[in-house]
């Protein structure tokens, strides 16, 4: 933990989707030891449900865009840009090498 403090790392460190370490602004670090992963764990089930919801919404938006209605296409693009502006600025803080989309 002292190496992390010495490097000046603040925030959270992820390996895959597992949070392994969080550093407070005061310089104290907390190390998390994830339990053995399981296919039937509550976290994995929630990730599966959220992934399915994301895919469903993506395909629905694709079908809306394929109508070639200019106003609907503009609404999809503007909604995506607004969502990225509001929530995407934190994306550069945490790098997830297992994420393959966008």
Structure commentary:
- The chain has 102 residues and is α+β, with helices and mostly antiparallel strands.
- It has 2 domains: 1-34, no CATH class; 36-102.
- It is 47% helix and 14% strand.
- It contains 3 helices and 3 strands; from the N terminus they run αβββαα.
- It is flat, with a radius of gyration of 19 Å.
Key terms:
102 residues, alpha+beta, three-stranded antiparallel β-sheet, 3 helices, 3 strands, ion transport, copper ion transmembrane transporter activity, transport
How many beta-strand elements? 3
Distance between the first and last residues' Cα? 32 Å
Please give the share of residues in helix: 40-55%
Low-pLDDT ranges:
1-10
Q: In DSSP terms, counting alpha (H) and pi (I) runs of 4 or more, how many helices?
A: 3
Q: What order do the SSEs take from the amino end to the carboxyl end, as H and E?
A: HEEEHH
Structural domain count: 2
The radius of gyration is 19 Å
How is the largest sheet built, in terms of strand order?
A: 1-2-3
Shape: flat
- Structural category is alpha+beta
Average pLDDT taken over every residue:
75
Main pleated-sheet profile = 3 strands, antiparallel
The amount of beta strand, in percent, is: 5-15%
């Amino acid at each position: 933990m002292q190496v992390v403090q010495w490097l000046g790392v603040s925030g959270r460190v992820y390996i895959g989707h597992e949070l392994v370490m969080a550093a407070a602004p005061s310089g104290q670090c907390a190390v998390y030891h994830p339990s053995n992963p399981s296919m039937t764990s509550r976290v994995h089930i929630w990730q599966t449900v959220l992934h399915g919801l994301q895919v469903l919404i993506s395909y629905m938006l694709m079908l809306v865009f394929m109508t070639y209605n200019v106003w609907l296409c503009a609404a999809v693009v503007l909604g995506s840009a607004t969502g990225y502006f509001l929530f995407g600025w934190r994306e550069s803080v945490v790098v997830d090498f297992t994420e393959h989309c966008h």
